[in-house]
UniProtKB/TrEMBL annotation:
Signal peptide: 1-25
An example molecular function term from Gene Ontology annotations: xylan O-acetyltransferase activity
PANTHER family in the record: PROTEIN TRICHOME BIREFRINGENCE-LIKE 37, PROTEIN TRICHOME BIREFRINGENCE-LIKE 9-RELATED
Species, as recorded: Canna indica
Protein name: Protein trichome birefringence-like 38
């Protein structure tokens, strides 16, 4: 349990000295954190053109879902594949898929969340596959879906849960239960868990999958969505605090993934989506400013007793107005400026995940 305090990553200032100290207090997982950390903040920086990208060719990855497979579905431009995230004052460690599989030999990790988690899970599977293309890999679809790298005994799984908390069908209709997290029992016993939820909290009308929202004994027709998100996420935080053994399980929270439907946010007031965006924004700041849900995430995580590493990917993703599928999204209808092409931006999220583990 001792590395619990050093590995307190709600804020991402990593003190090398603290990590070195953690070496003396425990073995196993913590030692993996003690090397290679040289960045103060992996989440501040800018995008630079890099000819060596992308990290894999989506055409040779057997896992990519049509909705993310932009090149296959006709995206004409390729420059969006060629950008590397450059944190201020340091270099993001190179992703080494074999090293990742060796470190996680015999272990199980699971992404839990909505289709943005699905996006990141597929990205990681493609990155690992690209490192060991001839190894035996099994892919079992379901809840959870499981991709296993047989020679390493590493399972990389995805459990779909749009809100993390429960939706229950009752006689009155479908109820979003802000203080109930029954599916949590399926998340126990993993070596690493990477959670995410946000996008569905904003859905209204036909795309809202519940009729009522319940908070304690009270049932409402609707609720301010940020307030509801705060309550639901706090339920998740309490679940982690009471159910996770931090010595056995590393917990990450994938921060808020931004959308690009309001051109005013990036200085093109007439744009209503991300179609034909071919380059990231220059520099390290986003004109539209932070997403309000980020402050909910920050406040809930900072009140937790167990260590959770926030993959604070919002700003770096906001700069990537060019990285969405837009209309090149398989048979997904409409203009998708929420998810991300693969290969593409989620590969960077996984590079940062890797950097946090080595
Ligand atoms: C994959 O599995 C098959 C059948 O179990 C085996 O013959 C083959 O050698 C394995 N491949 C590798 C690269 O280990
Ligand atoms: C937590 O996990 C560690 C490592 O698996 C184990 O040694 C320890 O007994 C566990 N603690 C509790 C309270 O279950
Ligand atoms: C961003 O920077 C690149 C390289 O310095 C430059 O070619 C491009 O025109 C810039 N784009 C904008 C929108 O300023």
């Amino acid at each position: 349990m001792e590395w619990q305090t050093p590995w307190r990553f709600g804020i991402v200032y990593v003190l090398l000295s603290v990590l070195v100290a953690s070496l003396h207090t425990s073995s196993g997982l913590s030692s993996e954190l003690a090397s290679g950390v040289s960045c103060n903040n992996l989440f501040q920086g800018s995008w630079v053109y890099d000819e060596s990208y992308p990290l894999y060719d989506s055409a040779s990855c057997p896992f990519v879902d049509p909705e993310f497979d932009c090149q296959r579905y006709g995206r004409p431009d390729k420059m969006y594949l060629k950008f590397k995230w450059n944190p201020n004052g340091c270099e993001l460690p190179r992703f080494d898929g074999r090293d990742f599989l060796e470190r996680w030999r015999g272990k199980k990790m699971m992404f839990v969340g909505d289709s943005i988690s699905f996006n990141q899970w597929q990205s990681l599977a493609c990155m690992l596959h690209a490192a060991v293309p001839n190894s035996n890999i099994t892919y079992k679809k379901g809840t959870p879906s499981t991709i296993t790298f047989e020679e390493y005994g590493v399972s990389v799984m995805f459990y779909r849960s749009t809100y993390l908390v429960d939706i229950v069908s009752e006689s009155t209709g479908r109820v979003l239960k802000l203080d109930s997290i029954q599916s949590g029992s399926a998340w126990l016993g993993f070596d690493m868990l990477i959670f995410n939820t946000w996008h569905w909290w904003t859905h209204t009308g036909k795309s809202q999958p519940w009729d009522y929202v319940q908070d304690g004994a009270k049932i409402y027709k609707d609720m301010d969505r940020l307030v509801a998100f705060n309550k639901g996420l706090s339920t998740w935080a309490n679940w982690v605090d009471s159910n996770i053994n931090s010595t056995a399980t590393k917990v990450f929270f994938q921060g808020i993934s931004p959308t690009h439907y309001q051109g005013a946010d990036w200085g093109e007031p007439k744009a209503t989506n991300c179609y034909e965006q071919k380059q990231p924004l220059n520099g390290s700041s986003y004109p539209g400013g932070p997403v309000p849900a980020q402050s909910v995430v920050n406040s809930v995580l900072s009140a937790m007793s167990k260590p959770v590493y926030l993959l604070d990917i919002t700003l770096l993703s906001q700069l990537r107005k060019d990285a969405h599928p837009s209309k090149y999204s398989g048979d997904h209808p409409g203009m998708d400026c929420s998810h991300w092409c693969l290969s593409g931006l989620p590969d960077t999220w996984n590079q940062i995940l890797y950097a946090a583990l080595i």
